[in-house]
Design brief:
The complex is a heterodimer of chains A (about 120) and B (about 110). Chain A is globular. Chain A has strands at about 5, 10-15, 20-25, 30-40, 45-50, 55-60, 65-75, 75-80, 90-95, 105, 110-115. By secondary structure, chain A is mostly beta strands. Chain B is mostly beta strands and about 110 residues long. Chain B starts with a strand and ends with a strand. Chain B is about 0% helix and about 55% strand. Chain B contains no helices and eleven strands. The chains are: A mainly beta (about 120), B mainly beta (about 110). At the A-B interface, strand 5, strand 9 and strand 10 of A face strand 4, strand 5, strand 9 and strand 10 of B.
């Protein structure tokens, strides 16, 4: 159980393009979803926390107008990287939790974003 | 800001050896989770420890949560090449309700 699907797994696009990444919880209702960014051989860096039906909470230093997050339902959250540039190239990972203290986060398989 | 110091960052050992990975903090966590991640994939949850002093075993992996809930360790007995991967500890607690604070990660390579 607790399967999280992330799509697409890989994106290659030109600079200036906006890219949307989807995160779906397939077999449970995710009250909270998290978006992370990960550089090669490094740990995960939290970008934002999204709760269903409300605005996302962004971590310090993360531009909310650059990384648009929508969590319109209990099974779907999207991250849109607007006007992407080469420095936005990274591995983006989402996770989902059914909320509450000490509940584990279940991770998607990530999206490798490459901006040319 | 809660910090979780994970060590070592890199570990390269021979098959059959034992190893321990540590996560330490000055903050108290309500729970601590250990994940394993392979290249190009998302982290997979190994275990969650909640109670101070708790010890959990998962085959050859032993996880311990410190009595004060500020530190944790992962011990692998008789490591195998299939154990190779990035191991991450992550703590939840304090003001970061629901959010995880990740350690820097340990890249483990087990040579046959």
């Amino acid at each position: 159980g607790a399967v999280v699907s992330q799509h697409p797994s890989r994106v290659i696009c030109k600079s200036g393009t906006s890219v949307k990444i989807e995160c779906r919880s397939l077999d449970f209702q995710a009250t909270t979803m998290f978006w992370y960014r990960q550089f090669p051989k490094q740990s995960l860096m939290l970008m934002a926390t999204s709760n269903e039906g409300s605005k996302a909470t962004y971590e310090q230093g993360v531009e909310k107008d650059k990384f648009l997050i929508n969590h319109a339902s209990l099974t779907l959250s999207t991250l849109t990287v607007t006007s992407a540039h080469p420095e936005d190239s990274s591995f983006y990972i989402c996770s989902a939790s059914w909320g509450g203290r000490n509940q584990p986060q279940h991770f998607g398989d990530g999206t490798r974003l490459s901006i040319l | 800001t809660q910090l979780l110091e994970q060590s070592p960052q890199f570990l390269s050992i021979q098959e059959g050896e034992n190893l321990t990975v540590y996560c330490n903090s000055s903050s108290v966590f309500s729970s601590l989770q250990w994940y394993r991640q392979e290249p190009g994939e998302g982290p997979v949850l190994l275990v969650t420890v909640v109670t101070g002093g708790e010890v959990k075993k998962l085959k050859r992996l032993t996880f311990q949560f410190g009595d004060a809930r500020k530190d944790s360790s992962l011990h692998i007995t008789a490591a195998q090449p299939g154990d190779t991967g990035l191991y991450l500890c992550a703590g939840e607690g304090g003001t970061s309700y629901g959010k995880l604070t990740f350690g820097q990660g340990t890249i483990l390579t087990v040579h046959p």
